[in-house]
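Collaborator request, handled under Task 6.
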Amino acid sequence: MSRKLISIIIPTYNRSKSLPLSVKSVQDQTRGNWELIIIDDGSEDNTQEVLKDILKDDRIKYYYQENQGVSVARNSGAKLATGDYLIFLDSDDVFFPDLIKNIYEAEFYKYDLICWQVLKNIDGKEKIWKAQQLDGMYNNIIATFLAGSICFKKSIFLQVGGYDPKMSFGENYELGMSQSEQTDRKFKSIHKPLLIYEFKTQKRRSN
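Structure tokens returned to the collaborator:
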């Protein structure tokens, strides 16, 4: 596969209502050369039913596993990915249609990690979340590690062991610390929102 293929991984658990919108936001990308891997982490709703027509798109693959948590599901997707770059998207968030286009224009394949801004919709109120300079635990890099806001070089992701399978909260920033430990990492930020992150103050499961 070309090094410029981007593997997008969506872990999901009982999200049959929101998952199709997340998937459609990938299909609606204005530039191609991506694959989508859906990891169903033991859903007990009608997830498989709502995916029937979607899976006619041969760029999309679906895998079911017993419930093991979002971190394990993401790691499973990474192992199945055929692209050299990974993006993890939660199954109730959506990409802007020009995400892949912007990543290509930023020459993502020259970097180890590339991130972008997020339009956060918190109980209907919108706010732009920008990459920030993180503290010493992250070697003071400028980045954001929210799922859906960063593209990882697959070899680097695997080198640090991926997501901690024991974590279901804060797992993105724990991964970020592992990623930023090496001072020779090449980071880049895109200064525009390319992800819509939906958040309700009710209890929210991260996948």
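The cover message to the collaborator said: "Helices lie at 19-27, 47-50, 70-80, 99-105, 154-159, 171-180. Residues 14 and 43 are 5 Å apart (CA to CA). Please let us know whether this matches your experimental observations."
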